Amino acid sequence: xxxxxxxxxxxxxxxxILTLVAFWLPQLxxxxxKLSPYECGFDPLGSARLPFSLRFFLVAIxxxxxxxxxxxxxxxxxxxQLITPSATFAWTAAVLTLLTLGLAYEWAQGGLxxxx
Length: 116
Hints:
NDAH_ubi_oxred_su3_sf, transmembrane helix, NADH dehydrogenase (ubiquinone) activity, 116 residues
């Protein structure tokens, strides 16, 4: 038996076991607290349909954008091993400039302020 077949069998067996345990454990002692829709531990105080602030979504999208920027820049130290490292630097500088200008625009427009 080769290594790939062994790994596939082990991961499949582990996945099946964990799935069965996940379905079996919650059914041991169901009660009113576990069956209620609010399982977070506190009683609901208001409606669950209150609207979120758009600023929350704006900050969340900006966080994701800059998080993806870091993910794109992580392989940059290996970029100097390419045939044209100056082209790699130019593309990196263009991406950073574009993102910096976008952040400056959002900051100037007041999009990052929580309080109005």
